[in-house]
Amino acid sequence: MLDHLVYAVPDVQAACDDLEARLGVRPTLGGRFVQMASYNHLLSLGGGAYLEVIGPDPDADDPGQPRPFGIDDRSTPGLVTWAAKATNLSARVVRAREGGFDLGEARPLSRQLPDGTSLEWELTMRSEPIGPDGGLVPFLIDWGESRHPSQTAAKGCQLVEFHGEHPDPESVMGMLEAVGEPINVTLAAAPAMIATIQGPKGQIELR
Asked: How many domains does the chain have?
């Protein structure tokens, strides 16, 4: 089940300006990943899901390592992958490996919230986060007892449709089946994620 879509951008505020202009709702500050020198803004998509707009934190020092989701190499915004809600991540990792797909290991992570407190969760981390599947195979995330980010994200939008494109859709759908999180993937020249979002100002497509 979809937890959130990851929209990686070179400039978070510029991306939020664009989304607000087209949808009529501005994503709200989620928090900062201090060690990774990045931060995010969040937009609720209804149904307990949200859009994460993530990019470099202009107020942070150089992290001395690549930022997540290929942020350092991006010149334009784009959907790069997605997260699926899950529990008992270690067991899900084993099950996926038995099905022929390596989700990596389950690890704890946290970010600093605007009020100075921390939000903690657990997720699976692959050695190659965006591999040949083009980001269409999700990572798994377990928020445990933490308040889900969709509850504090900006409201007013709905996810209408979400699917993938890939030159070898059958292969990717096999990976998704192994992970236990199937989505529709159609044939196209290059991998892509496509999300149709409805807002007060109308409907847009992100990819």
From this structure: 1
Asked if 156 and 25 touch (Cβ cutoff 8 Å), the reply is yes
Q: What is the CATH number of the domain that holds 64?
A: 3.10.180.10
Separation between Cα atoms, residue 165 and residue 176, nearest integer Å: 13
DSSP 132: T
Per-residue pLDDT of the chain (207 residues; tens, 9 = 90+): 999 999 999 999 999 999 999 999 999 999 999 889 999 999 999 999 999 999 999 999 999 999 999 999 999 999 999 999 999 999 999 999 999 999 999 999 898 888 888 899 999 998 776 788 999 999 999 999 999 999 999 999 999 999 999 999 999 999 999 999 999 999 999 999 999 999 999 999 999
**What is the pTM for the complete model shown?**
0.95
